[in-house]
Design goal:
With 558 residues, this protein is an alpha/beta fold. The protein contains 24 helices and 15 strands. The strands form five sheets. The protein has a five-stranded mixed sheet with strand order 2-1-3-12-4. The protein has a four-stranded mixed sheet with strand order 8-9-5-10, sandwiched between helices.
Length: 558
């Protein structure tokens, strides 16, 4: 893929003044320009590996969020989000020295590869050079910065979903309501359509264990339920992201742990509980409760099925469903018939980003990109991005918290078209909680909380700190033998898992699963796990805490 970086310039009758860098300063500098609808901008490319991230086409039409961002920053963005193999695409672009200007990424191996190449900016240096008045140089949460430095070697990226102890000091929250979120929430869940559950004569008590759920699917399948003439789908998994989200939830539910009986790190796919996750998916596919073609659909198609009201049960990342939380309910974990404890890894000490935004050293227009980074992460930019324009999309409560208008609510629902709350890479949980009122008990937000906390709040779920599994920058270099081993194992897992769950019989399932284990061993997974374990044990010592094994070993996973 080639990136053609064009500079688009609107000629102004009057020369525009120099842009400021602080959000507040840029607002003063652009006031007259905005009023006459004359401003200059340049174009940069933004690349992401999140294939279901849907950003609207950039518009300069008056009243749009993108036009406001261009006025404030001088930047227009062309987004490039490959539908598949984004990591390979970006690696090829790196070799050809044709990196996009901006990259919003989730793949840690690719992020490390970019950092090791020396082709992306240290943000401290970047901002000091191109936006020296940026608020990020003075008020970015210090604990998050240090966590990023420990992980990446320096402050190379801006993280999404900011929420740390220092962040909470910067953006103060006047309620303990959100403590529950911080302790227990995860967007990866099993959820049930309330109306269809009732239509099938089922309640949450009927869908607690794997056997109960399979019985519920069998019942619904036999009833031939329909919605608007369309057959009800007993189970929808998370489309082409099912390995990342659906299987992750099932592994959590069935209790696939990341440590062995000696509390040494082990790849959870080597645990017997992980076999149960694969068997569950194989079973629902073979019995026709879920459909193999749905494992290749895009996120927009997943949303379409959910919106159509024909899905009884969804397992995966609920944040990507577009669901109306009042119409859905979670049953918590899917309990194994062996009654193993569910497990859940949470970023308890530090949340330092699902997506990380990096800037290419060869980027076009670094000043405008620096202004964009400064503005989008600042109070004014976050307000615009998430809630739009005061007096139109939101008003202020007496305590200055935000109250969305009906117009604002609808625009947020239509984020793919409007861009409202669409900039996930600038998500700031701590800030958002500081500007919103505590939701009422019958609000959509409250229903969402019930869904997201159902797994973590289950009485027997074991919650551990993901920080204890973190690997520092350069620990496994991508171009090292162990790095190549990691890459090869990751590719093999993805390919073989699809064969295991697609098995047509119990015998074929067992054959494919045993090959999975033997080939992982042949590829060197024990060597990889041993390398990771060395750092995990150091983390245990550093933090004075360990990840305990809570489920009894069951001997061979065969």
């Amino acid at each position: 893929m080639r990136f053609v970086k064009k500079i688009l310039i609107l000629l102004c009758v009057i020369l525009c003044p120099l842009w400021g860098c602080r959000s507040g300063d840029s607002g003063r500098d652009t006031a007259n320009i905005a009023s006459t609808n004359r401003f200059s901008y340049v174009t940069a490319t933004l690349f992401s590996d999140v294939d279901y991230w849907e950003l609207p086409d950039w518009s300069l039409k008056e009243g749009t969020l993108s036009a406001e961002i261009s006025r404030r920053t001088g930047l227009k963005l062309e987004t490039v989000i490959p539908p598949q193999d984004a990591d390979r695409t970006l690696s090829l672009l790196l070799l050809k020295e044709e990196l996009p200007d901006i990259m919003a990424l989730t793949d840690r191996a690719v992020i490390q590869q970019l950092i090791s190449s020396g082709k992306v900016w240290n943000l401290e240096e970047f901002l000091k050079r191109y936006c020296p008045n940026s608020h990020l140089l003075t008020d970015f949460p210090e604990d998050m910065k240090q966590a990023l430095i420990r992980r990446n070697g320096a402050w190379y990226s801006f993280p999404s979903h900011i929420n740390s102890q220092d962040a909470k000091k910067i953006w103060k929250i006047n309620s303990d309501y959100y403590d529950r979120y911080d302790k227990y929430s995860t967007t990866v869940a099993v959820i049930w359509n309330r109306e269809l559950l009732e239509a099938a004569g089922l309640g949450l008590g009927d869908v607690q264990t794997e056997s109960q759920i399979l019985s519920a699917f069998r019942k619904v399948k036999s009833m031939n339920l329909k919605v608007n003439g369309q057959e009800v789908i007993p189970l929808l998994m998370d489309g082409s992201s099912y390995q990342e989200w659906t299987l992750s939830f099932l592994n959590n539910s069935f209790g696939a742990e990341c440590v062995d009986e000696d509390e040494n790190y082990i790849d959870r796919w080597l645990q017997p509980q992980a076999k149960k996750s694969l068997k569950f998916v194989n079973t629902v596919l073979r019995r026709g409760y879920a459909y193999s073609q749905h494992l290749a659909i895009s996120n927009s198609q997943v949303k379409s099925y959910i919106a159509g009201g024909t899905v009884l049960c969804f397992i995966g990342n609920t944040a990507n469903t577009g669901m109306d939380p009042e119409k859905w309910v979670s049953s918590g974990p899917i309990l194994s018939d062996d009654m193993d404890r569910p497990v859940l890894g949470r970023d308890i000490r530090m949340v330092n980003g699902w997506m990380e935004t990096l800037i290419s050293k060869d980027c076009s227009h670094p000043k405008q990109i620096a202004r964009w980074l400064d503005y989008m992460s600042g109070a004014e930019g976050m307000l615009i991005n998430n809630y739009g324009f005061e007096g139109i999309d939101y008003t202020r409560n007496r305590d200055q918290t935000i109250a969305l208008t009906e117009t604002g609510r609808q625009k947020r629902k239509d984020s793919v078209k409007t861009g409202y709350s669409a900039w996930w890479n600038f998500g700031n949980i701590a800030w958002e909680r500081s500007v919103l009122p505590v939701p009422g008990k019958d609000s959509s937000e409250a229903y969402t909380m019930e869904i997201e906390c159902a797994l973590g709040e289950y009485k027997d779920t074991y919650i551990f700190d993901n920080t204890l599994l973190a690997l520092p920058y350069g620990y496994i270099p991508a171009d090292s033998s162990i790095g190549r081993l990691l890459s090869g194992i990751s590719d093999f897992k993805q390919q073989q898992i699809s064969k295991i769950i697609g098995a047509k019989s119990d015998a074929e399932f067992e054959e494919q699963y045993q090959y999975f284990l033997s080939q992982l061993s042949a590829l060197g997974i024990e060597e990889l796990d041993s390398k990771i374990n060395q750092q995990v044990q150091k983390n245990f010592e550093f933090y004075g805490e360990r990840i305990q094994k809570v489920n009894e070993p069951k001997g061979s996973v065969s």
